[in-house]
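so my prof wants the structure for this chain in the tokens format not the other one, which i didnt know existed until like an hour ago. anyway here's the sequence
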Amino acid sequence: MTAIVVIGATGSQGTSVLQHLYAYTQAKKEEGLKLYAMSRDLGGARAMQMANVFPGVQMVAGDMEDKESLKAAFRTAKDDGAKEVRVFAMTTPCLMSGGMVADPVKEAIVGCAMIDAAKEEEVSHLVFSSVANCDKDNSPPCIKSKSPIEDHLKKSGLSYTILRPVTMIEVWDRVYPITSGRVCGMVDGSVKLQWVSTMDIGAVAMLSLVDPKSHKGETIDLCGDVASGNDIAASVTEMRKGQKFTYGIAWITRFVVWCFASLLFDERVRFPLEGGFKADLKPLAKISASYPDCFKRKGPLTYARILLSGGMDTKVLPMSGGVGKVLMQLVLGLLVVIALCYTVLPTSVVEDLKRRWAFYGLCLLGGTGVLLQTMSRSRA
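here's what i got, hopefully its the right format
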């Protein structure tokens, strides 16, 4: 028996990998493969849902930040009789320490420890999901952090495949959902961005895990589409049969990110404006052209294909919110500033601010914003 352990199985990439592995084993009736989904919290809603969505997949406890727990997860597969253990691994600075702080330095340390755990437990093949252009000088810290992990993996002696995806469509669409007549982003609408679907990441990872020899020792760029904000707005306009959609920058969000999340601003604004990802589109186009029939698709998934698969041509879209949404965003940003004032400034200064009319004006602005936002939602 061969065991495949998916690290981060409840996340976007891990779920996609597991979904494609499950589809393959069911279609091919692969009895020699056993799937393990690793999660730090087996009692969490997502982990418990896995058992219902993927019957037969075994949940196993493991924490990316705990090397010994990773080794125990790999050993579980061996204790079940697996002669060979293969692993899908990924890291992210935003999942370290409960997801409250982005820490690229810690991500690199955790990633290297993950490689060591796989080496010590004699994992036969490891597929690592990195990120495109992580070895380039102008890449942001949250992208560069994958480079030392890649280097450590190459020097480890393990059999490996490295995947280098660009910006993930599904993740972006959750952060900036399309509303009625409106497509939003963080940079100018003319800036071309590279995109890949998490479904294609999962598909290529699955192929590399089921047949390690097919991409052993390879570093593969994963990019399925190049589109600007204006391009996406034009595509949605066409899908909605003439309903006009325009692209706009989420200025309030961008300002708040600039003030309080410099690493995220670096990744979402500065990096794209300086040229962004420069991944090769050919590898994914070639691999996806020969996807197995159980995937029910050929070719890379573009932004437009993902939107269509989600019913963008027919579904009811929420109202953009207009002035109400802008006010809500502004108020949220100002509330953060107020919270910081309460934390940092002396009590006497805070009390003086509270006596000023601006404090109560802000409260009135917040109430107006909530009212307008509620009214805009009721019209949707």
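also thought this was worth mentioning. The first strand starts at residue 2 and ends at 6.
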